[in-house]
Amino acid sequence: MNPIPTSYFVALSAILFTLGVTGVLVRRNAIIIFMSVELMLNSANLVFVAFARQFVDLSGQVFVFFVMTVAAAEVAVGLALIVAIFRNKQSINVDEINQLKG
Amino acid sequence: MTPELILFFLLALIAIGSAIGMLLSRNAIHSALWLVLNFAVGSVFFLILGAPFIAMVQVTVYAGAIMVLFLFVIMLLGAEVLRQDSRVLPWQRPLAFVLGTIFLGAVLAFIFLAWGGGPLPIALVDDALRKFGSPQNIGKVLFGKYLLPFELTSLLLLVAMIGAVVLVKDEKKISNSKSQTSK
Questions:
Q1: Smallest Cβ distance to A7: which of B45, B115, B150?
Q2: A61 to B61: CB separation less than 8 angstroms, yes or no
Q3: How far is it, in rounded angstroms, from Cα B143 to Cα B10?
Q4: pTM of the predicted model, to two decimals?
Q5: Contact at 8 Å (CB) between A4 and B5?
Q6: Does A16 contact B19 at a Cβ distance shorter than 8 Å?
Q7: Higher pLDDT pick, B55 / B124
Q8: For A7, what's the count of Cα atoms within 13 Å in the CB-facing half-sphere?
Q9: C-alpha to C-alpha distance for B108 and B110, rounded to whole angstroms
Q10: Which of A9, A43, B8, B22 could form a disulfide with A50 if both were Cys (CB 3.0 to 4.6 A apart)?
């Protein structure tokens, strides 16, 4: 039984987080941006659970529980926002949502 | 190269590949499906890390509820086919790739060179630790030490539900009915 070193999980989480950030910055479809944010949250969850195992402390896993709850609430409200915006503008291309521009 | 390490690298490859597939898909439904695969692999990672309850919660809540909500909205809005990139800056994508690689290189250098990983984690095989991530133990911590945040998340979910309902209400119908009753 050879446990995998924690640094491997942290590195994997860093790679997934960077991919999520790239997705948020480069894509213009609001739903894909939202999914990239979920990817970032998921990578943070991975780090939490990895450190929970390293320090044999369940607080990491409980925090993942809270992160998932907050992510669910955020997705509900965010998708409602996207639906409301789509109703007004018929588009979810974030380049076209610029009515607050001075 | 222990079997655990081989399994880890295989799963990590699938996770990174599905994340890249999500980013590069032109069709939003394909992106959502790639993300579901990523969450499923994440769930397997949680199982490897001795968190069976969190693994099941990931499959149920993340892949089962949140991604289904995403797919509903994508199909509702008809957003699956993205329009042609009209005013895309040509240097944006290569620059994003280069900067992302530099950032990732810096973070990985820190992880493996400066930090080193700390002490190796102990294998969770003896009797006390075999039930490490079990629902009973998580319940003890969740309802003991973290009771207040738990109650606050219930309030957060209520607020989110109310917010979602308010945001999607049709305002034209309400203002029409108000103007009719005032006449």
A1: B115
A2: no
A3: 37
A4: 0.88
A5: yes
A6: yes
A7: B55
A8: 14
A9: 5
A10: A9
